[in-house]
Amino acid sequence: xxxxxxxxxxxxxxxxxxxxxxxxxxxxxxxxxxxxxxxxxxxxxxxxxxxxxxxxxxxxxxxxxxxxxxxxxxxxxxxxxxxxxxxxxxxxxxxxxxxxxxxxxxxxxxxxxxxxxxxxxxxxxxxxxxxxxxxxxxxxxxxxxxxxxxxxxxxxxxxxxxxxxxxxxxxxxxxxxxxxxxxxxxxx
Length: 188
Fold this sequence. Notes:
Residues 78-107, 123-152 form the 4Fe-4S ferredoxin-type domain. The chain is an alpha+beta fold.
């Protein structure tokens, strides 16, 4: 196989100092600035912009209606229609989590419970939201459909301890999810 050497093109003085690119960038910036002053900015109507340009006024206006269907937000645990935990503490989400943001401590279900056929449930379930990268792998790997990524993007706290969501908090933000749960299936 023959080796072909490609010679670099010679640059003139304007190209060496990026003069043409700087001038072109300046004119594009001025074009956008004039359009903003004339209230003709592209996308301003879609975001219901209240001022010049397409800047969203954040606390009053939110992205909720502009969120795409495929958006992955905060992970949360869900219960079924009868407020039973869907999670069986299989720990697959903990093992697959790339930044290791999930920590699960499995617990036993008492033998006198009517659903004692299920081996485990989580005693402790924590997700460190400062580490979570919202990849969705925990949702994909869950065999019981117990963890979902919601469209929630406003996750804040005053310190790091508030950003670690425990089991109670995860169930609060997750709510109920209706549908088949393998864990409670009588035929299983």
